[in-house]
Amino acid sequence: MNKNIGLSSLNTDLKKKAPIDIIRWGLKKSKNPIVTTNFRPYEAAILHLVIQAKPDTKVIWCDTGYNTKATYLFAEKIISELKLNILLYVPRQTKEYRSIFMGDIPGVMDPKHKEFTDQVKLEPFRRAMSEIGPDLWITNLRKGQTQFRDSIDIASKTKDGLLKLSPFYYWSDKDLDVYMKEHKLKNEFDYFDPTKVEEKRECGLHD
Predict the structure, then answer these.
(1) Which of 93, 174, 186, 195 has the most neighbouring CB atoms within 10 Å?
(2) Are 191 and 71 within 8 A, CB to CB?
(3) What pTM did the predictor assign?
(4) Mind listing the domains of the chain with CATH numbers?
């Protein structure tokens, strides 16, 4: 993947494309793409979109270990139905081990929150990226989710220069509802992220 792509002109072009064509454009230029998921609401849409273009795309799931029962059941259902090439990454420490040293899930103002977030999400993600070495990262980031996400676009880059594509960036929940209905995809709203605490807060994975 050419890391010198001009993002401004690229996004101007990508805005004219349908999400599936954005994915196809990226895949043509990529040798080792990934899509990340946490099986939160509307994740079935991005996973379905990607496998339409490349069924064997690596799907990275960093499971914090704190998901709801509904999320785990939903994840297994989607993995099976879409035949996802899932690569699961989990924290090095068990939930029980962590509870001894940190107690309950640390709040945002708790000094332990940063270490907690690193243990359950950031370290597993860094490990995944190091082991897989992708040249394209496909996500379901959308405008309006957080202040940081409002500052990016369909195409953005990580601090390391990795190209990140968010094909549904300008889509609303209603738009995705239509997509999911058309493709008979299920949604699951019983979801919990222990690292964000607040809905509009970033955990550090994308910012």
Answers:
(1) 195
(2) yes
(3) 0.90
(4) 7-177 (3.40.50.620)
